[in-house]
Amino acid sequence: MILDTNALSAMADGDEGIGAPLANATEIAIPVIALGEFRYGIRGSRSRARYERWLDELMNSCRVLDVSADTTVIYAEIREALKRSGRPIPANDAWIAALARQYGMPVVSRDRHFDFVAKLVRMSW
């Protein structure tokens, strides 16, 4: 499964509910986009050092998904379909959705707008 930024935040903050969608995961992946958003968020945190240590530890057991030329095709398809349907989503989330479709993995997120993306499974807690 792919972790959205709010799933990373929930894990870092010890939200016990996040364990339910992750319980049966065979692989946990972090999109490079979510990784950047999370790192940006913790830069201004009073607990920056703790979050950075936590993230470094997590990175040992997760795969980071990078954007490729193949991802850009899926991204463009998603953005076009959402625009046509009148339900655009934030660009960063469209990249995350594209990676999820590319790798055939569900997205763990509380953001309901992922539900508007065809052929994408969102798991929440």
In short:
By secondary structure, this protein is mainly alpha-helical. It is built from 6 helices and 5 strands; from the N terminus they run βααβααβααββ.
Helix content: 40-55%
The rough form would be described as globular
The H/E string reads EHHEHHEHHEE
Radius of gyration: 14 Å
CATH architecture field = 3-Layer(aba) Sandwich
Number of strands: 5
- The largest sheet has its strands arranged as 1-4-5
Q: Approximately how much beta-strand content do the residues carry?
A: 5-15%
User: How many structurally independent domains?
Assistant: 1
Q: Poorly predicted ranges (pLDDT <50, ≥5 residues)?
A: none
Give me the number of helical elements: 6
Distance from N terminus to C terminus (CA atoms, Å) equals 14 Å
* CATH class label: Alpha Beta
- What is the arithmetic mean of pLDDT? 97
In CATH, the homologous superfamily goes by the name: 5'-nuclease
Largest sheet: 3 strands, parallel
CATH topology: Rossmann fold
From the helix content, strand content and strand pairing, which structural class follows? Answer: mainly alpha
Task: Explain the overall architecture.
The protein is mainly alpha-helical and 125 residues long. It has a single domain, classed as 5'-nuclease (Rossmann fold, 3-Layer(aba) Sandwich), CATH 3.40.50.1010. Helix content is 53%, strand content 10%. The chain contains six helices and five strands.
Any descriptors?
6 helices; globular; 10% strand; 125 residues; two-stranded parallel ribbon; 53% helix; mainly alpha; Rossmann fold
